[in-house]
Design brief:
mainly alpha, single chain
């Protein structure tokens, strides 16, 4: 199990570094307005594509910890979230089109991740950090969805989405690290 937590922690750090690098290198996009998926196109986009795949794999690794603790519902939700991240990473968007499969993958990620954390927190009756991240990311979901459905996106659409992604990734980094250090 320690090896899986090392991978999970390392994958989380990779995604964080990839986010920073891509935002520094891809000046043609607006940090506040453009969603992260746009950064997966063109030069350096492979960093985000790999990052989304790694996030998905990472969530499936972390879901296995829930299964070992006999928490099937959080396991199922986190596995679905991980599959969603991988779908969103594989199916790219373009300037004019967001494929339905990409939307589905993103929705799976943004819906099932908080449900996994909230359900785990309820079943385990602990982990205030996990519950807090779950509740905040669940609160951000309708804001992201409403913005996504608009023809003209909010000036802060990308920022709200990236805050959500950073919250998710903070949990992905902190939980395996806490298991390694205990």
């Amino acid at each position: 199990m320690d090896l899986l937590n090392i991978f999970a922690f390392s994958f989380g750090i990779y995604f964080l570094i990839a986010l920073i690098i891509v935002h520094l290198l891809k000046k043609e996009f607006s940090f506040k307005k453009d969603p992260l998926s746009k950064y997966a196109n063109g030069k350096w986009g492979i960093l985000i594509t790999i990052g989304l795949l790694v996030v998905g794999i990472n969530q499936i690794i972390l879901a296995s910890n829930f299964l070992k603790l006999n928490y099937f519902i959080p396991f199922l939700f986190l596995t679905l979230a991980g599959l969603g991240a991988m779908i969103a990473g594989i199916i790219k968007i373009s300037e004019t089109n967001t494929p339905a499969a990409h939307k589905l993958g993103a929705l799976m990620q943004f819906l099932f991740f908080p449900l996994a954390l909230i359900s785990y927190s309820i079943f385990a009756n602990e982990h205030l950090f996990t519950l807090s991240i779950g509740l905040i990311t669940l609160f951000l979901l309708p804001i992201i969805c409403m913005n996504h459905l608009k023809k003209k996106k909010s000036a802060n659409y990308g920022l709200i989405q990236k805050i959500n992604i950073l919250l998710i990734n903070s949990w992905i980094i902190i939980i395996p690290y806490s298991r390694l250090s205990s």
